[in-house]
Queue: 4 jobs
Job 1
Amino acid sequence: MIPSDLDAILVLLRHGETEAIVARQFQGQMETPLSAAGVDQVRRAAHALAFRDGAAVLPIPTIAPRFLIHSPLGRARQSAEIAAEAMTHAGIAAPPLRSVAGFAEIAQGEWEGLTDTEISARFGDALGRWRRWPERAYAPGGESLGQVFDRVEGALTELLGELSVDSAPGTMDRHQVLGYEDESPDQRPWGLIVGHGGVFRVTVCALLDLSPDHFWNFDFGLASISVVEIRAGRAVLRALNLESPKGEPGARRDATGAL
């Protein structure tokens, strides 16, 4: 899936809070808009991506991204539009937005639109199995993790191929420990994917070559930023679930380097 000599960066931005989340409903592929709070969450995250004005900068090249893609669901498209607008304000040439079906959220079938209490009452055993063994259970009428892995891996293969075009090949014959890296400006190609918590769990597992039973080992907060670095074809998780602080856009990070 990953070209053997690729040096690149993938940035994952989860959408913000939605009206369905406010109502405590399972979303899946159900359409639901961002709430007012969700719009503000994404604006803060987009500002962090575009302006990089913190005590500790994100491990992302300062050049324009090769692509800015989003899930076809409205909440992801709305979040991507906010990210593109922030890049434009920062003087970064944001590429045209592209919808990629492979990064749609996991279809939750008959659970979509129901609250946890309602699902527990009607599908308690299935919900319990999903939370314990996600590789073996899924919502009635929904997608299995195997199906989701197939479409995510197909989408990633195409995107990583795009990043490899006209890019300098990487090598393993360099420092692999942070702190020793070259201090010259980072010119590696990078791209932004705006999507969902469930499909991003699958994305990270696929990139790190982990089986579906590791699905619940990763989590993604609302409007959080995660960064996967590709070093000569090897995926390295550089940042996971960085969340923007409440307050004005551009608020500085705390001493831990968290957004």
Job 2
Amino acid sequence: MRRISGLMLLVCFCLIISVPAAQSAEPAKKDPLASWQAKFDPSDAEYTYILSNISHPVIEGVGVGYRIRDAVWEKSGGRLFVDFRPLAQLGGEKDVISKLKLGAIQGMLSSSVAAANVADRLGIVNLPYVIDTFDQLDTFRATPALWEPFAASAMSSGIKVVDITGYGPYGWATTAPVKTLADAKTINFRIAEAPVNTDFYKAWGLKFTVMPWPDVPQALQTGVISGLDHTAIVCNITKKFTIAKNFTELDYAQGLFVHLMSKKWFDKLPADLQKILIEVIEEESAKTRELTRKQYTAQIASAKEAGVSFFKLSAAEQQQLINDAAPVLAKWGEKIGIDYLNLVRTTLAK
């Protein structure tokens, strides 16, 4: 009995010391944001600006949040800390918009499709073939008659629209090649949770599923969806091309992140910090729009090198999409303001 008891004690002792050893041998989970950690201690900041985003900062239009953080910290002498929270740390976009309206957070880099839920006029950037090239986007931002009505559109909700960055032109990432509209009708496309997108997909006569972005990977893997309405930048960076190995370049709209800010919070900020914050956001956003052009070219090249096939619809079929969407533009023109929509279209067509 003494021997048995001794053996049991020895076994227990070995188990006790082996568990920590086994645990320590497990690889630590890598922090996906380790490369973006602040090189300063923000604990003594007088003011904090919590800024949310749903995507990964390797996308230039998202990474701008960290560049804004660092520039504001330096120019404010450490008085204002931009606490940037990407990767949906604060929840999905609809939840974050609610938090922004309530004042629980102060800012958000909202996808353009989600921003349309804040104010109808913000949906103009999602309408097909209205603001569809990088050059048109730059003209839109640089023209006060176009930009100012857009920027003021969410004020009734207590939200300022400060600036925009992007994630490239929209198209279709699909599991089967889509070279024609007949091919497209065989695909079940995932589209974003935005009423304007629902309207023009119905007008195009295509099958679609409205789905939150976090649900997309599993849906794509299991075949619930067979296509994505998104941009090549996002599809390549987030590894969607590992399953959907085809991309049809529609270029019907520019994917944007719209910088939304709580007006109530901003109005309480000292005037000098207001000036610093707005100037930095505008400067960094402009630089980032240029970086996005370069990232688009680089990501297309990377995807092609990895074996992704790229296609374009014929000019006639692209014109068919434009024609089929005409009733949607008329409907949204009433919401956005028909005079404003016409002004944007005629100015950008020059």
Job 3
Amino acid sequence: MSTIRDTLVDAQHRLSNAGIDSAATESAELLAHVLEVPRNRLFMQDTLAEDDRISFERLMAKRLNRIPLQHILGTAAFRRIELEVGPGVFIPRPESELVAEAAIRFVNEIANPIAVDLCTGSGAIAISLAVEVPGTRVVGIELSPDAFPWLEQNIKKFELVVPVEVHQVDATDYSADVFVELSGKCDVVTCNPPYIPVDMIPRDPEVRIHEPAMALYGGADGLDVIRGIAKTAGLLLKPGGLLVVEHADVQGPESGEMSVVSVLRAAQLDEELATYIPGVPGDLLFTEVSDRQDFNQRPRFTVATRV
């Protein structure tokens, strides 16, 4: 019988040879899942029972076929919470934790805040806001019929002071009833939108094959959804309210007109939007537009203040 250490060393080599960067961590995660213990409770010298070895090999076969680790485990960690994920819903990434952090810091200073998370997917950002700032009214918006059941399932897992309210509508359709009802009332709007250009193929098969296309692709230049949610956020936010939008590292300020900073700085009140909110067509929607970096000092999200 093999020890846990021998099993992990072998699994790490196999995952690494398959091109998986975090092979050591992932092999330990898979074995801990089989043994139903936290990863830090794996005792390296313990022997591995044959039935557990077989179960582990089944999970390894899936991972070697580049099925995402989170799909195999059925969960994804995000800040203080663990979310249920699977086919049809985008797996939350650590980069999005910074979007949540910016929003949480902002509403922490506000009494009885209202937050809207557009393109909410699994509910990672929305639920984090509700968990970390108790009493916040949080509204999650998700269009995908495949992702929406995961969103509802995740919300039910948490005993929230104010449950997250969810609506299955297009985040770019600012005429939707939920947006009109919240017009000018919101303190913060967050969004991790689809932002990959349609002709750009993701390198990793975990993304290319297993992530839902609706959560990935944002039109010819990747910015179509961001242009749309800028108007929705313009309708939702109070003067002085904050918009926080995630983007690709190639859509930072150095991208010029193709940057999210440029899109938000150029966002204006048009004639149709002016039928819903006060102002003159041509008025700018946002001021104090700036970009922020991720953990690796790459441009990753943009913040903007409602005029």
Job 4
Amino acid sequence: MNLFEMSQIPMKAAIKAMKLDPSAAAIIENPERTLEVSIPVKMDDGTVKVFIGYRSQHSTVMGPAKGGVRYHPNVCLDEVKTLAMWMTTKCAIAGLPYGGGKGGIIVDPAKLSRGELERLTRGWIDKVAPIIGEKKDIPAPDMNTNAQIMGWMMDEYSKITGQFEPGFITGKAICVGGSLGRTAATGRGVMTAAMEALKVKKINPKKATCAVQGFGNVGSWTAKLIHDQGVTIVAISDVYGAIYSDKGIDPYELAKHVAKTGSVTKFKGTKAISNEELLEAKVDLLCPCAMEGQITGANAAKLNAKVICEGANGPTTPDADAILDKKGIFVVPDILANGGGVTVSYFEWVQNLYRYFWTEEEVIDKQVALMRKAFKEVYDASKEYKVDMRVGAYISAIGRINEAMKIRGMYDPK
């Protein structure tokens, strides 16, 4: 089973639970458009290397497609199709006027010089330019891409169109139209969802413990902001290892340690543990914020958290979901929990369209309000249909998309 097939399982469960019209289901289950491009890049040694890139637009029913661009050696067509579909549901859950998109290039950016990386980035824009734009498809940062790469993309697209185009892309630097509050947005969304879940489980945050898998942008901000709520962070990991302290880990001090050493390992007052031990730690809250497929049928039965709040995309497999549900572990799914990034990307887009910018406090207040509303709607759907939160999230999303399809006359309801 590939990633796309795996992602269809909770979607099909939602379609079945809500007795969705088969015509609507057929439209929702398939991406509208997927583009594969070849990008020739002149390397520093004078040779030309061809890279393969993608852009998938799962849906534009609710508005222009929206989604990141990742640079990674393992990028593939199934992955971008799946991530585009997840973006459709994330945007619908949050009530944003967007559909879902995703892009990527098969490359290890660490092996490219700065000049090669810039030429590759501009080459991708040149190839996908006909299908993107502020009213068509709006890219953003993802794995191994950042504000600098977004800046190159915006500059190249502006050259193609012959005008300044800040609204065509989000995740930019502040000086070229980026939004305050964007850097911490995904982590803030995970924190907000986690706090709502603790309320449901009647767990006092100031007496709660938490383990965070991953200490990149999402994991580090998740840890910091959950720590700010009074939760004790007892375990954190990165690609080099995991650390534990029952007395608590200050993620702000840990970030300074990582800046100096490059890893969370050997942080003062902690002991080294395995990734398995972190996932299986007896904590109130577990936040997987690393890669997909971390919680599986092989280890789900060993988990001891009361709440799992997914910061990563697809960290839990369908067979693991069934086990976690039987164990009574409350899972806040990725398409709800990590929707903070796209929520603030929406705010950036709106600000770009109006050329009027909000304060960071305004951005944070708007984000938290939207995410609390989305959590309540998903939780209510899960209770109404007697399903878990993941299926409830799909029901919430599909309900909005289905209504838009009917209004637009995309099928005749039976």
